[in-house]
Write a structure and sequence with these properties.
Blueprint (H helix, E strand, L loop, with lengths): L6 E4 L3 H12 L4 E5 L22 E4 L6 H11 L3 H8 L1 E2 L4 E4 L1 H13 L4 E5 L13 E3 L7 H11 L4 E7 L2 E3 L9 E2 L11 E6 L1 H13 L21 H6 L26 E7 L6 E4 L8 H8 L10 E3 L2 E7 L2 H4 L5 E2 L2 E6 L9 H19 L12 H12 L24 H27 L1
Parallel strand pairs: 1-2, 1-7, 2-6, 7-17
Antiparallel strand pairs: 3-5, 4-5, 8-15, 9-13, 9-14, 10-11, 11-12, 12-13, 16-17
Helix pairs in contact: 1-10, 2-10, 3-4
Length: 447
């Protein structure tokens, strides 16, 4: 007989909210535990569910040529709450999907509070869940409180790994000088004018890079000293230290943009992306940093167009923790040492909002099926959901496991040769077919 007890989800971030939603959609009651505001974190600013701590972007929405865009599409097909809310609160961002972060959080929280099968409890779980919680999804994210992290570490026998993640600064639009800055999307994607661009000459760029290298950084705590950065989210000053032109080939690349004053391409360009639906706030793309707040304000105001910038928020860094998933989790995200516990979100070793929510979606579906006494296969590895799940639970080398974004390199190769430029679209087409078959099989099993 199916277990009549509720599923417990610990953590009200993107993964936890998505997991709770998927459990409820299957007709199973769920209790969502969120420790804020009872206990805050070093990075959150509100007590809202699904708060976007770093960027407001879910990255590319191109499902034909980008793996994360394909993951967007797959999650929408699975009835994702996160993507329903994102589509409802999106703001201009070229080919990307970006949202008004406050409206997004409010939409997610409202949907869950209105669902009769969801109970929201504001409390901190300070150790392993009680034994009578027979089905638990741990989605506490990269900022898991120490008591719970210590309990997990003791249970698994594996040391938690850690890396830094970062927060980009936000600027008030009305403080930007549009005699210098201009609106344009790279290669005129989206509406063609979704980003604000600030151009730098070679001399200005070189001065700025040297300022990043020489700038005052925040002091590291003892536990931070040996923690590695995640290469997909490097602080801007760390990129600057890796080479004089690193930033010009990274977040400050000028390709696809032309300064309308000169009709030429600048040596480097700083881009700002809309952060709220009113269009009053813009975040500096890729400018996460460990610089002190005073140094940030001084240095960023040397960027042409930002001389008088006012900041709604300055950048910062925090430590992220994750488990060695290939070592400790099974194919359904259950902890091998205690199968009543599932894990979801960034704790599983995925990187990014979308990937975190995707693991929440799968954990919720797996937990609900188990509660109902149904069988549910993992999604095919030819899908974005299945490729990412397969990588973290079995495909990655446990000895060198590091956080991973979804990418086409995780997918099995195609069974036919074709030109490189056509492979991505072909993999996306295959994924659509296989996801539809998986969803059909899951629906049939539920009936």
């Amino acid at each position: 007989m199916p277990d009549s007890k509720p599923v417990h989800v610990i953590g009200g971030g993107l993964a936890g909210c998505e997991a709770a939603w998927q459990v409820a959609r299957a007709g199973v009651s769920v209790i969502l535990h969120e420790m804020r505001p009872t206990r805050g974190t070093d990075a959150h600013q509100t007590d809202g569910l699904a708060e976007l701590v770093c960027s407001n972007s879910f990255r590319s929405d191109d499902a034909d040529n980008n793996a994360v865009g394909l993951l967007h599409e797959e999650m929408r097909c699975c009835g994702s709450l996160i993507f329903a809310a994102a589509d409802q609160t999106k703001v201009p961002a070229g080919g990307a999907l970006a949202v008004d972060r406050d409206e997004f959080s409010a939409a997610v929280e409202s949907a869950l509070e209105d669902d009769p099968l969801v109970t929201l409890v504001r409390e901190e779980i300070t150790g392993l869940p009680p034994a009578d919680w027979t089905s638990v999804i741990v989605a506490t994210g990269p900022l898991t409180s120490d008591p719970l992290a210590d309990a997990i570490r003791e249970l698994t026998g594996e040391d938690s790994l850690a890396f830094f993640d970062a927060i980009a600064p936000i600027v008030y639009k009305d403080s930007i000088d549009f005699d210098i800055a201009w609106f344009q999307s790279r290669y005129d994607k989206g509406d063609g004018a979704d980003y604000i661009n600030c151009p730098l000459s070679q001399a200005q760029y070189e001065t700025f890079v040297q300022g990043l290298v020489d700038g005052d950084k925040g002091e590291f705590k003892d536990w931070e000293a040996s923690t590695p950065y995640f290469d997909g989210c490097l602080p801007i000053e760390v990129m600057a230290e890796r080479g004089a032109e690193t930033l010009a080939f990274g977040p400050m690349k000028p390709v696809g943009l032309n300064d309308p004053r000169t009709e030429d391409r600048a040596h480097a360009v700083v881009q700002l992306r809309q952060d709220n639906s009113l269009g009053t706030l813009y975040n500096i793309v890729g400018f996460q940093t460990k610089l002190t707040h005073s140094e940030q304000a001084r240095l960023f105001r040397t960027i042409p167009g930002l001389e008088d910038a006012r900041f709604a928020r300055l950048g910062g860094l925090h430590r992220n923790t994750f488990i060695n998933s290939p070592q400790v989790l099974d194919a359904h995200l259950r902890l091998k040492a205690d199968p009543r516990l599932r894990f979801a979100g960034q704790m599983t070793g995925v990187e990014g909002y979308v990937e975190s929510a995707a693991m929440g979606l799968l954990a919720g579906r797996f937990a609900a099926a188990e509660d109902l006494g149904e069988s549910m296969d993992a999604p095919p590895v030819t899908t974005a959901l299945g490729a990412l799940l397969g990588h973290i639970t079995s495909g990655a080398d446990a000895k060198t496991f590091q956080p991973m974004n979804v990418n086409y390199g995780l997918f099995p190769p195609l069974d036919r040769k074709m030109r490189k430029r056509d492979r991505r679209a072909a993999k996306s087409a295959r994924a659509r077919e296989d996801l539809a078959e998986w969803l059909g099989a899951s629906k049939a099993a539920a009936e």
